[in-house]
Amino acid sequence: MPEIINMPRLSDTMEEGTVAKWFKKVGDVIKEGDILAEIETDKATMEFEAFYEGELLHIGVSEGQTAPVDSLLAIIGNKEEDITSYIDESNKKSEASEITINSDSENDNHEKSILSEGKVEVVNMPRLSDTMEEGVVASWNKKVGDVIKEGDILAEIETDKATMEFESFYSGYLIYIGVKEGESALVDSVLAIIGDKDTDVDQVLDSLNSNKDSSNKIGLDKIVEKKEPVNEKYKPKEEQKDTTVTESIKNERVIASPLAKKMASEKGIIISQVTGSGDNGRIIKRDIENLKSSKILLNQDIIIQGKESLVEFSNSQMRKTIAKRLSKSKFTAPHYYLGVEFDMENLISFRTQHNNLSESKISFNDLIIKATAKALKLHPEVNSRWSDDKIVHYNHIHIGVAVAVDEGLVVPVVKFADEKSLLKIGELVKDLATRARSKKITPAEMDGSTFTISNLGMFGISEFTSIINQPNSAILSVGAIIEKPIVKGGKIIVGNTMKLTLACDHRTVDGITGSAFLKTLRNFVENPIGILL
Predict the structure, then answer these.
(1) Is 506 a catalytic residue?
(2) Range of weakest confidence among 18-22, 221-225, 387-391, 500-504
(3) Strand, helix or coil at 411?
(4) Is 232 a domain residue?
(5) Domain span at residue 275?
(6) 152 included as an active-site residue
């Protein structure tokens, strides 16, 4: 299936973009990271790179032409693929969007005149990932009254995938903040206003509010409807809780590794009181180990005999998105599960020999990814996606690898995994996981998976099931390698086995199809020389 590249939104106010220059032409081979084009936005001209590999099959916007955000920019795929239907669909959307743009032009002009007269710039909540619907302001780097220069970092915004810095494209004074730290707001709602120091903010808001028909675009209605936090002092008496100690830590954002959080919980340490020594103040294992109890507030201190207590934490944007998507997957895709147990003796021997002969080491997870990719190539029915009118079988293998982070779970993608060497897979997985945990991974590096692997074996989990990462049709749950008595040749010996569970969407993958895939995977794992062939 070809990869459709749409005109990106490269600034918070960008509605259309102009292709200043193409660096590739139709027929060129594209590698991930190649600069495809220079795109001129309303703020600057920026390089736009490819997140996919393949051949450039179609250019939808010629040099010098302008197109709306999300319109067809290019198509990348295999040379023999038929892309006629995608181009036709794009043309229909373009015709529909022209009607909408013309009907809205009068409101747009009125809106712009309001802003320009008062030298005011409205900064909206940006869409920082393709799936982002709302964002949480993790922290503000500026406060009302500060002088803002173009390029200054205004805030850190937490999306459904990562926490990202958001810079200003304007200069002036920060005269209004529409979303407080810890609060969430829909994409395109008012995030802040930048203008002259003597600007009457109330008048600006009133002016925008009076044009409420067009306020859906700038998100003013989100300001009007936004609920302020309830003052604890005025809560009904029956709703009050004893929060004398916990109030100060209730909504505090703590950057800590999962292991550090676990250790702190086990030792009764309130982690928000710990000073982190990791990157950007991240709290890590050694910080918990090196603590002196006399310098830290312990959870035990807030436990009063005969009195209940609790600590509340606001749901992060990532956690809310995980809940939404997994609930949708669980209740819309008819899951069923196939469990197998593989003999791991040959794979253990293979890995040991490889790592003894090479300076670069590979993990069992790297081997499972490679073996899975090889098996998927032979079973495209499992490497698929369901939609109401069709089933899509992918020819390319993009494997998502579930990675635990502080706020929940992200799924970086190893693209074209079947074409990559074991060493390259190992390097990519390590790099993606490290950057995911430090929040430096890009949304594009978490998009496009065709199959997902979740491995909890390193945590000693012998067997488990996972919820399908839609739009994938299946997810493989990988358990720990267990040493135990097994029967071979009629004799009981000590061996090593590993349990795996394949969760399948019955709409696309029948039982016999999933079973055939696991049989092929078993052959690769138990006879690992096949992984290299």
Answers:
(1) yes
(2) 221-225
(3) coil
(4) no
(5) 242-302
(6) no
